[in-house]
Every structure is written in C-alpha cells, then in structure tokens.
Fold Dihydrodipicolinate synthase family protein.
Amino acid sequence: MARADLRDSYRDVAFTTATPFGEADGEVLHDALAENLSGLYDAGARQFVPCGNTGEYYSLTDEERAEIVETHVAATGDEATVTAGAAGSVAEIERLASAYEEAGADAMMVMHPDHTYAHEDGLKEYYHAVCDATDLGVVIYKRGPEVTRDTLLELSEREEVVAVKFAVNDIKEFAQTVADSSGEVTWVNGIAERYALSFAIEGASGFTTGIGNFVPEATLSLFDAVEAEEWERARRIQRVLRPYEDLREDVGEGNTLPAANNVPAVKYGMDLAGYHGGPVRSPLVDLSERDRSRAEEHYDRIEAESPLEVI
C-alpha cells in the first residue's frame, strides 16, 4: 500500500484485536480468530492491529505473531489495513518485519520501549534504524514519557513513519506535539473511546479501540459522530461506553498493579457478544466473579441502547 494511502487509512477506528487461546493447552485458535475478524469486517472495521497489548504481544512467540498476522490478512478484505505489533532489539524487529511483510501486513507498530535504561538520543537512533530496516509503514506507539516530543517530531519527518499512536492521557502534550509537527503522519488517539472527542479536537484523526472487539457498531458510530462533528450525539455514545472502559482500567481483585482488567475485560465482553474471547495467558489473569458481573451489567446497558441511531 502506498504511504499516502496508509496514512489515510489511520483516519479511522483501529481495532486492536484480541488473540483467542484454547482452554486446555492455550494454543492460538486461528479458526476462532478468523471468525472474530470476519465479524468485525462485516460490521465495518477496516483497520486491524494484531499483536498489540490487547493481543497479548508479550505472551506470544515470534512464530505465533507471524501466524496471527497471516490469519488477519487472510480473514479480512482487500480494503483492510493490517498493522502488526513489534518490539525488542532492532535485529528482532527486522526479523519480525520480514515475517510480517511475507504474511501480507501493510505496516508495523513499534511498541513502546521496554528497555530498563534508555537515552533519548539512543531511542531516536533505534527508531531510525527500524525505519531503515523495513519497507513496511511504521507506526510509533507512545505510552509514556520515554518517547519524547522531540523524538516524535524528528521521526514525523521520516517518510516511513505513517502514524503515531499517542496513548498518554495528556491533551496538553498531544496538542502541542501536533502543533509543532511539520511531518505528514496521521495522529491517532491511543486511549480509545473515552477521550475520542477531546483528542479529535486537538488533531487526532482516528482512535484505537479494545471494546470494539465486541461492540464494533457502537465504536464505529462514535467515530462517525466525531468525524461529522455531531458532538452531542458523540457524547451520548461515549457516556454509554464509558463504564465498560472504566472497568478495563481497574486493577482487579487481589492486585495493586494498574489496569490488570484491560485484556480480560475485552475477552469476556467478546464472550458475551458471541465472539471468541476465552482465557488470557500468564501473567494476565481472567476477571473475578465480581468484575464479570460488572462487565455483564455494562454490556447489557450498551445493548439496551441499540440501535445506535437512538443513542
């Protein structure tokens, strides 16, 4: 896909897809994954991000990652864009990029740096080396302060960098970064539906979704309302979706680490909606009974508000 077309494809909802695993042995269920993807495509999804945090990237092997991307390409239509997650050393990313390209991916999302110690100049060199190592489009994923504004501004000048997923709840920083950028990248709100309106006003042309894995129509309706600047309708949809998003942000029972509910809440929602969610892999844990009840309540409310034209 041409770079200009790739940039335009991110002016949409990017579905960060979950990976279904078997109950007994935890293997990737490719037939179930294909069914999930076909359902999302039929609902209107066109931008897919496999092997991200929602897809449990860090619990997958490189072989599994490449196979998951191949399933995405095969299960979605020609209009779809597939952006595969990648992390690690430049050499590892280069190997993954080669496998992703062979599988038919359009772009690669470089996950937020997981290095214990890093230097800003070193990170810039790292991203430049990644861009030099692949013909795929490159999406930069920012989830914390390590990827600085200066880094993003410098990388936005690279032809290979087609989008930035800005997943930090800092509207001031986002707005200033977009204003300072002279590159042609597409800016994507990486913290989903709850902040779709605020980030759109400040320059985000699209947003990512996790709950779109099981309520794609609601997520796409929110995007349509934001794109049309129908702000009151967008707020009504957002208010219906927010409780489930808040549940995802919870730590879960018996835990103090942040947002541990994130992925299992998505997968349980998929089960409720008739998609294939299933269990998570370690070190994640499934929802507690209490949080399952909360998920059911929030999901039922979303369903009760359909059809979405009435929201």
Notes: Residues 178 and 203 are 7 Å apart (CA to CA). The beta strands are 13-16, 47-49, 81-86, 107-110, 137-142, 161-166, 186-189, 206-209. The two ends are 36 Å apart (CA to CA).
